[in-house]
Amino acid sequence: MPEIWLGYGDAEIILDIKYENISKILKPEVKTINPEDLSAIIHDNINLQTSTLILITTPFPKMFDILKTINESNSKLDLQSPDIFVLSKPFTLRLRQDIYKETLKIARIEPEELLKKLPLYRNIILIDKIEYDPVFGFAGSPTKLIRECYPNVMNQIYPSIVGEMPKPGSSGDALKITIESLSKLTCQMIHVYSNRETIDSIYIGHEINSFLDAIERFKEKTSITGEYLKSAFISGSTSYTSQLDLGSSLNLLWNNCHSVLDGGTIVLLSENRGGINEGALSKFIEGRLDLNGLEKYQYINEIEHINFLQLIQEKYEIILISTLPQVYLNKLGLKSVTKIKDGLDWILRKYGKYSKSNIIPFSEITSIRKNIT
């Protein structure tokens, strides 16, 4: 049997699967940028000055390489150290440990506080890694800011969600509204294509709409072809929050569920140590969200997942490997098993001992297109 390790929260678990049951392991190539080249790109393209705020809109393991390079350039210029914030829920244990190891002064900031601070700085640098997203098409600093800080803009975007299937990799109305809404924000942006271990590419821009160029270059690197099958294993682990809560895991599902044929089965690794966020998912589980006409609502955090679940509930069988209680998942129409082996056994019983599955280990940075032969 091949050793296939899949991300499960902050750890990895092994999928003991026979070669004959694997169609393909679908993941993009991630090369390693030379550290000297990384430093040179940042040094040559990022303007540093006093009164600088660095905002990490999604914490990810390789952000420390970027922060250390900026600090080194800052020291050479004899400038005051920048203030570094993470727009984040309470830090995960692994993130706290990594910050401690790097001896960097990094603070968590809430959306309301961030909006008050932004006008106080002369220089703003946004840092994030690009991922696929079922609402905006792509995730990065602009989309994270809109989600977290601008509820009125999310209300404008909401009509483009209701009744629509997930749209990962598509630059539609939601992304257009995002770019237009943030067009007056003066900032520099650093985005990367990376996994946990390495940075492949870095994209630097000096205005919000430069994100559009970055995502096109990201898409070129991360779009891969594969055969659409009746079953797949989906996971993700390239950021600290890939499987933190149910909503994060469902994003992994939506990014590539289209690669499973109608009536198929998806096993989703979904540890969810952070549980279920306050928002649409929890309201629905508690019986406080009426599904008769989702269009009547304004945007509620993570309501897109309720919309997508309604649209695909007859299309796929979804099985979670999760710490969440089954009673909650039942209300969402999701099944769960305790071990990944149980998920594999489920598929083999349903489709036969010689059936094949696709394995998608990094769904947040993978876009699968149908292999046309």
TrEMBL record:
Gene3D superfamilies, A to Z = 3.90.226.30
Name of the protein in question = Uncharacterized protein
